[in-house]
Structures are given as C-alpha cells and as structure tokens.
Amino acid sequence: MKASLKTLLRNNYVTKDGKRQVCLRYTAYRQCTFIGLNISVLPQHWSEKKSAVLSGDHHYLFYNKLISEMYHKANGIIMDNYLKPLPVFEFIDKIKDRTYGNTDFYVFIDNEIELLKASRASGTILNYYKLINTMKEWKPTLPFDEITLGYIQRFHNHELEVGNQLSTIYKKHANFKFLVGLAVDKEIIEKNPYEKFEIKKNIKAQNNDVLTEDELKKLQKTYDENKYNEGKQEVLREFLFSSYTSLSYAEFSVLTYADLKPIKVKTGETYPLLCNERTKTSVAYKIPIVSPVVVQLLGDGETFQKIFQPLSNQPTNRYLKDIMTDLKINKNITFHRARHTFRTIAARRGIRDGIAERIMGHAEGNDIKDIYTHLHDEDIIMEMADKWVV
C-alpha cells in the first residue's frame, strides 16, 4: 500500500477570530494523522487548489515557505520508505526529527553538542559552540558535501588572515575534526577529510608572541593620548589591562564592578582584588589592582555594571593588528598574547610561580596548593606591589 500526503485546512479546529489550522495529512495502512504546522489562516485566505496561503494574509510568503519546506520533508520521508511505508507513529517520529533530511552541518552538530553535554566538561562544550559560531561568521551555511580537504585548507587560511596564532588555529582544527567525526560515525559523511590534513599539536611560542615593557609603554602613551575612535580605543584599553593583569579575553564580557573585592594589607593600605572564575576552566583567579595606571583602566561604576564592553574576537584582533602597524611594532599580536606578555614580564620581575598561576587562573594555582603554601590574598597583592607596579 502506498502512503499519501496532503496539505489542507482543517475544518474541526476554529479559533475565536475564525481562523483554521493548516496541516499535513499522512495516510498509510488505512490510518491517517494530522500534523499541525503552527499556521492558522482565515478560510478566504486559503487556496485548496494551490495548497497555499493567499496574499490577503500579511504573512503569506513566510507561511508558504514553511508549508513548502515541511511538505518536501514529509514527501522525502515517504519516498525513502516507498516500498514499505512507515506506520503513522514512525512517520511522526521522522517528521519531528529536526536532523532528518537535513543537509546543513550546523543544524546537525547543534543537536549533537546537546547530547555531548552529558559526558563532556562545560569548558569543552563552550569551545565547540565558539568554534561553530566562528565558522558561521565566515560561512553562514555548511552543507555536508562541502566539508572537504579544500574547505579545511580555506578555513585554515582564513584563520591566518584574521590574525590568529597557529597554536589557536590547530586547537580549532582538533575540535572541528572531532565534530566532523560525529557525522562520519552516523554515516552522513563518508570519510573524515582530516585524514589528509596534519594537525600540529606543539606550536612553540616565538619571540614575537609577547611585547616588551618598552612596547607596552608605547601602547599606554597612545591610549593616554586618546588617539583612536571609540571601538579601537576600547580594544587598546582591554589589551593593556590584560597585559598588566593577565585577564583572559573570555572573562572581559562577564566582569562587573561587583567582582572587585577590597583587601586591607598589613601596611594599612587597601587594594582591590579582582576575583572570579575563568569561563573556560571554572578555575578561580585573583588579580591584585596595585597600580594607578591599572585603576585608571578599570574606571568606576555601580556594582551591577559591566567594566568592559568587548567586541567579538575577529574585529578585536583586526584592530590590534592595525594598532601594531600604526606604532611600528613588528610583531604578530593577537589578544591572547597579552596573557603571554604578562607571564613573561612577571617571570622577569621575579613574581613567584604559584602567585602568577593564581593570578592567571591556571589549574596549578588551586585552593589545595594555596593552603599548603600558606598563600593568601595579601601575599598576592604584596608580591605584585613589591615587584611589578606599572
């Protein structure tokens, strides 16, 4: 028995304003079911002959697009099971499956990432979402058949063009390879094109990864002179703050003035301590604010207000590249290099490793280690005040 499909306006469901529901009717094995499309129109705005909404309804273009998409999906399910039609309940499961018949990788992977939440760390899940959002900015749709070795190489070149470091790019490749592998496992893609693309795991930092103290002074002087427009000036402010404190890019968007904790030290002075958790690892960081220059970069506001208003990653790194060119600093700098700069200068100034790790929010600077080394908030503040004041 062949299954049948029809789009119609139901007569037994009428709203208060006289509208009726548009449905798909599926029939197989002498049973039928109606699948509502969340579309209700007046009878005079419906063409039974065309199975479409007429132009008398303001939303007719949108409605007809939705009807067409649902009809084609339902018809595709019928054709996939032509010789043995699906029972009604199985057909309903297929039509409700968001990924069935889908040809776009992003739609597929959104569903897969949801399933991964039960077994993967929150930081890993966040990295997957960040990767997909980055790829969508570059290419809004990604059909499965376009995921080829050529596509991977173009993505690699694009990441280089926007100023990302090789270490960052290869981390993105590793995540993308895993996500593509999910589509391979479900036989949506035949082979993983990463089989022919080498992912380099150890990309050593070069001398042009970090800024010197003299170069930081040049950046600070440019900021003080208010040389740039609002967007670029804000990027410079955030980059300087990160270079002085190690605050990572991901934390800028969530930071509020409530995260500043006043700490009184033995000398009688009170310093703000910036305390929160890293978005990526959920490891706590404690950043002492001991320099007037850094205080100026912080500004002031109500406790609920955000301290910074960061742009997205690509324009941020593009502005940084422009700034470095303007100031004739011949280094390949991205925002993450600010943390490298902080760690390098901190080491040269003799900041203890345990304190530097706690400031940066690395896993090594954890609470257990702090207890055994008697590392307290005052120790962190005094170390920075004694050895590195901007």
Summarize the structure in words:
The protein is elongated and about 85 Å long. α8 crosses α11 and α8 (230-245) packs parallel to α12 (337-348). The N and C termini lie far apart (81 Å). It contains 15 helices and eight strands. The longest helix is centred in the first third of the chain and has 21 residues, at 60-80. It has three domains: 4-96, no CATH class; 105-196, Tyrosine recombinase, N-terminal domain (DNA polymerase, domain 1), CATH 1.10.150.130; 208-387, Orthogonal Bundle (hpI Integrase, Chain A), CATH 1.10.443. It is of the alpha+beta class and 390 residues long.
Q: Output the strand order for the largest sheet.
A: 1-2-3
**Beta fraction:** 5-15%
Shape: elongated
Residue windows where pLDDT falls under 50 for at least 5 positions:
368-374
* CATH architecture tag of the largest domain: Orthogonal Bundle
Number of helices: 15
| Mean pLDDT across every amino acid position | 87
From the helix content, strand content and strand pairing, which structural class follows?
Answer: alpha+beta
> According to CATH, what is the class of the largest domain?
Mainly Alpha
